[in-house]
Amino acid sequence: MKLSRPVSWFLTAFGVWSWIVWTTFVKNLWKDASGLAFHHGDHSSPTAYFWIHLTLAVVSTVFGTAIGVLGLRGLRALHRRRTAPAPEA
To answer: In Å, how far are 18, 35, 75 from 6, measured between CA atoms?
Structure first.
């Protein structure tokens, strides 16, 4: 399958965006002092809210990474096609 340049860039950008968003989310989840993520603000006793949202962040980051890799592979393939020597007649 061949990906166009705009699609490849979009997939790559999606992968980068996924890492930015979900790592920020996990940092904020870890710093949560409202009692949603940890009982009594104590990091030794995480709540179900914490585990569900951590799982969501991990899965989303894995999918974002896979999508970003597809975009990078598409860009590399386009670059190889563009720089390949012309076939002789």
So the answer is: 18, 43, 9
Q: What is the model's pLDDT at position 89?
A: 64
DSSP character string of 52-69: HHHHHHHHHHHHHHHHHH
- Over residues 79-85, the mean pLDDT reads 84
Q: How far is it, in rounded angstroms, from Cα 43 to Cα 8? A: 40
Report the alpha-carbon distance of residue 34 to residue 15 in Å, rounded. 30
SS3 46: strand
Helix (H) or strand (E) holding 23: helix 5-30
In this prediction the pTM is 0.83
How confident is the model at residue 88, as a pLDDT?
72
Angle at CA 82, nearest 5°, toward 85 and 69? 130
